[in-house]
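Recap slide: MOT6 protein, sequence and predicted structure.
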Amino acid sequence: MSQGGGAAAARKAAKPQDQGWAWMVLFAAVLLQGLTLGFPSCIGVFFKDLQHEFQASNSETSWFPSIMVAVLHGGGPLCSILVKRFGCRFAVMLGGLLSSVGMVSSSFCKSISQLYLTAGLITGLGSCFSFQAGVTVLGYYFVRWRTLANAVASTGTSLGFTLWPLLSQYLLDEMGWRNTFLIFGGILLNCCVCGAIMRPLQLASESAPQSPKPGREAERSAEAAQLSNGASPPQPELQQQSRRTACSQALQKYLAFDIFCQNKRYQIYTVGVAWMMMGFALPHVYLVPYAIQNGVEERKAALLISIIGLINIFIRPFTGLLSGHRVFTGRRIYLFSLAALLCGLSNFICIISAEFSVLITYCIILSIAMSGIGALTFQVLMDVVEMDRFSSALGLFTILESITFLIGPPLTG
């Protein structure tokens, strides 16, 4: 009777996956990625105004979006700690609050260095918490439809790419950059609403009683034997050993160094994506000022980023459905590699001409490549590592990305 009741409880606990409230969580993840990953796409709209306001060079001004994007991806270990200690919902809502505070504070900045701290560090860290916790929770709510869920969630980034530049240009023309940043603070506060939807999911495996770890049991028995023999362990050595063990366990738990050393697929994938990201964010930072410098009207220049986002909206779900087919099971890495190759080669189009029609062609090809990368990045990572270590693997993955994200735009500037 008890076994039948336990089986029924297990089925009930696992029921929310792939159905019901899971789709509400997916909807929240779409909005969340639009509010976080899509947000840096609008920074290029403010580039010239910030340069004029603070009398800053290209390189000095580009540090602001670089820090934001780098912290957005590099705060993974902190997010991993928050998720493990307090859950995904808390991390998402805290991130929304930090993002809002950062942008509201940015509207009062008196120097470009203050903008590095407020919009760069604080808003970037808040976006990191919201985005990465939102990606992690999808892995628990979806199993059968996980590939499709990740692709659909990534369309939120495309929506952000489409809407943020248009909204930014309109508000900048009407109110100036300071009031625009103030309004952005209120918009980013909606991350807290998305986080409230992501209620904790109790799975059957989590409700089962956990047996004590063999290593811990052996340690306790050894300590008991020592005490029964009347011998007291040397306290300084034990404390030093325990500190080393705690440090090693923390690195494995939150940064997945053990996976990086042992899993060659994860190692190659992480290093490869980190190298790719050095140039991945450059169009969002420099495409608008590049077009304006070459005679394109400001509104048309802002439209270029929106074109990238608009095409992404339709291509990303298609990429998710295609990669979810059984033919590509275990082979999604090849689709990702093809998208990364196309993304890199597309940048040569800008060398041909800076006319608006040529730049539109560039945006179309670039957006197709970015759709593949955006839809598959985290799905391939989920294929490479086990789901129970995904949060830790994501932390190391994103912190290595953040290094190249940070140096790419200033180096180009």
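Residues 1-14, 204-233 have pLDDT under 50 and may be disordered.
The first helix runs from residue 2 to 14.
(End of recap.)
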